[in-house]
Amino acid sequence: MAALTLFGMIAGAIAAVKPSVVHVIIDDLGYHDPNFRNGQVKTPVMDAMVKDGVEIPDFYVYKMCAPSRASVLSGRYPFNVGYYNNNGGVASGVPLEFKMLPELLKPAGYATHALGKWHTGWLFSNYTPTYRGFDTFLGNSGNTGDYWYHIWGGSGNDCTTTPTPTGGPVTDLVDVQKPNSEITPADMKQLNGTYDSIMLTDRAVQIINQNPPTTPFYMYLAYHNVHVPMHAPLETVEEFPYVSNDARKVTDAMLLEVDNGLGRIQDALSKTGQIDNTIFIVHTDNGGPGSHACNFPLRGGKFTFWEGGVRGVAFVSSPLIPKEIRGTKFKGQAHLSDIYLTVAEGIAGLTVDIAGTGPIKPDSVNIWNALMTGSESPRYETIHLPFSNKYDNTSDCGNKGPSHGCSPSMRLGDLKILYGWPGEDSLISLTPLSKKKIPYGKSGGITRFGNQAIGPHWKGYNQTHQHNTCVPFCVFNVTSDPGENHDLSKEKSVQPAIAQMNAKLQAAADNGPDLCNIIDMSTFKKDYLPTACSNIEKTGFWLPVNYKSNYH
């Protein structure tokens, strides 16, 4: 009897635990890339998650990497933490005055873990994950330059001729096991040669296996897949014999590797008895790039303010979702920033001191009740970029080529307004599957070391170029016209909405902060770059400049 009573007490304690969250970001995923959208590829785990969860068709992201991640973690529109049209340079980061999501969860007893791509501040240690609310971090400062050897994939560094201790390339993969501690370079002897998503999934599974079942956790798992370079295991690429070109074969393989990882994480949660109290939040960081992704039926892609650049794949899945809601589509808009309060208040049940989260109040909207009940979204508008002169001279405002848009824009209800040049506006559809098998390597793909497939950029795919500009502005009904084909700006019926949107874009500009520069680039190059280069010479790693350990 005593044993039964003790078992009941333990079971009751587990049942009372706040839900855990596995928050997955898939880098550069196109709107039409998963199998549940296109029916051409293999994403069986994600397909099942969508069937058992809630898909969010009108989920808004920023047009590129770092601003989107800043938005997710801070609960603000990117521009409200200083990311206007600038993309995460070496001297920028989310200002320290803003509390990130894991900082909200720690007082509620959550274990917090970050894995993968960071991209929201690396210059000094206090901008890195374990100084911003995470207990542990295995990952990189930003992009990876090689999926097996974890080479630093950043830019803006003039240490290109600095020798490393081994004579090999620079890496930025770190493995930090304690909060507020030294940023520790990863053990490259152990991790070199392990495919990136497998490495991150291995650590995710280890964390789950070691997590006490009575402790809720928040896991931020930011895969590099499917960002360039196009790298995937050859055996996975060969699972797509009827895909006609090598660029898509490798893209599909990279996505399948993520899907495999999600399946392994589900298995670990099941084996440890945590699956029934865990919520998966899965989304992309921006629209897919034209180099390898498909955003059909949306126009444009990454780096543009067309829907293909700012509307992304997203879904939530969990046994906690009522059965009658599973397999449905979310009604209305959601934005990256909404994850902040949806997790903290909706899932963790906290009462967030809004004023204590930063100098500008969150733009986040708690959509948890709408997700769980199938009701309309409480979000009615989304601002992508305000009127402002703060981004006129930023690196991603048109001077990287015509694909990069720089367009004040927002959505209000069904209507969206765009000003000026939203970016390259291709409408891309997938090539149908071949009726016969086509071996890998027939259209530019190569193989390294016998089992590592390296794909080319996708060229000559089905697309139309309209080269539309919106001067002075365009207005589209993106509910009935998601491809943004029919400009309504001259229609009398939309004039009141245009006036409202203009007022909102101006107010956002008037109240916005400065750019998120930690220091200016001239100061960085003069006072800090020599230290960064010295760290590379001593360690072989691109590290925060205040790194002090004698790592060898």
Description:
It contains 14 helices and 21 strands. With 552 residues, the chain is α/β, with parallel strands linked by helices. It has a nine-stranded mixed β-sheet with strand order 6-5-4-7-1-9-11-2-12, with helices on one face. Strands 14-15-16-21 form a four-stranded antiparallel β-sheet, with helices on one face. The model is unreliable at 4-12 (pLDDT under 50).
List the helices and strands and how they pair.
Layout: H1 2-15, E1 20-26, H2 35-38, H3 44-51, E2 53-55, E3 59-60, H4 65-74, H5 101-105, E4 111-117, E5 136-140, E6 174-176, H6 188-191, H7 196-210, E7 217-223, E8 231-233, H8 234-237, H9 246-271, E9 278-284, H10 307-310, E10 311-312, E11 314-317, E12 328-329, E13 334-335, H11 338-347, H12 368-373, E14 381-385, E15 409-412, E16 415-420, E17 427-429, E18 446-448, E19 452-454, E20 462-464, E21 470-477, H13 495-510, H14 521-539
Parallel strand pairs: 1-7, 1-9, 2-12, 3-13, 4-5, 4-7
Antiparallel strand pairs: 2-11, 3-10, 5-6, 8-19, 9-11, 14-15, 15-16, 16-21, 17-20, 18-19
Helix pairs in contact: 7-9
